[in-house]
Specification:
Pfam families: G-alpha. The protein is mainly alpha-helical. The chain contains 7 helices and no strands.
């Protein structure tokens, strides 16, 4: 019986060994493919890291210190504009709210200064527009929405055409007006009349 088992195992052994050999070759080939893929991914990752390293080397970091309202944010925005970096949609919407608020505050200062400097209104109906604008009160930290700003556009337009407001603006050295008032006024005037 032992002889029969031995001869059967000899007959079957080469066939099984051949099957195992094929399976081993396929496993080795799969291993080589996986290794090639891993090397390719590694090269891609190395290239990406090299690009990021070059970008980080060109990156300039600045620590800006200063009191509130000293121009830190304005400096950064100017650098962005000078070097041609685009603002994303959220930043543009934030700027819009800031511009609206600056226009309203600046015009309020002009109406108040006109009154304190004793400058008469060119058109008496502008007194109502001035009172309407002086009643504007924005809750701290809340952006001025376009719909809210639109309520003030007729008053702003009428006030900016009044010679009393223009005279108050020309005498701005006698009181404190936001530094960008001329630009804001020009933008507002252009926008209101376009």
């Amino acid at each position: 019986m032992a002889g029969v088992v031995r001869s059967l195992s000899r007959c079957l052994l080469p066939a099984e060994a051949g099957g195992r050999g094929e399976a081993r070759r396929e496993a080795k080939e799969r291993g080589r493919d996986a290794e090639r893929e891993a090397r390719r991914r590694s090269r891609d990752i190395d290239a990406m890291l090299a690009r990021e390293r070059r970008a980080v080397r060109r990156l300039v970091k600045i620590l800006l210190l200063g009191a509130g309202e000293s121009g830190k944010s304005t400096f950064l925005k100017q650098m962005r504009i000078i070097h041609g970096r685009e603002f994303d949609q959220k930043a543009l919407l934030d700027f819009r709210a800031t511009i609206y608020e600056n226009v309203l505050k600046g015009c309020r200062v002009l109406v108040d200064a006109r009154d304190k400097l004793g400058i008469p209104w060119q058109y008496t109906e502008n007194e109502k527009h001035g009172m309407f604008l002086m009643a504007f009160e924005n809750k701290a930290g809340m952006p001025v929405e376009p719909a809210m700003f639109q309520l003030y556009v007729p008053a702003l337009s009428a006030l900016w055409r009044d010679s009393g407001i223009k005279e108050a603006f020309s005498r701005r050295s006698e009181y404190q007006l936001i530094p960008a008032a001329q630009t804001v006024a020009d933008l507002c005037f252009t926008w209101l009349h376009s």
